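Support reply, case 0932

Customer input (verbatim):
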Amino acid sequence: MKKYLSIALMAVIPSFALADCASLMQKYDAPDPASKTMNQIQRWVSKKVTDSADAKALESCMVAQAADNPNKEQVAGK
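Our regenerated output:
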């Protein structure tokens, strides 16, 4: 029973994180993270976002999508 509950929670939590990221990006009118480097995103967040909790969450989700993030999956030709 605990195993199924933990699997269900693991499936639900990322969807909340993505929804939160999208809403934060819209709230602060954030640029497309795929067209920015990680340093550009960090500078933008430090200048534009005053709430520290929002800044931390927005920066982490935008850096995950950054153009130069080595952990991001990249497909040749895209």
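We compared this against your earlier run and they match. Two observations from our side: The helical segments are 2-27, 38-48, 52-64. Confidence is low (pLDDT under 50) at residues 8-18. Please reopen the case if you see a mismatch on your end.
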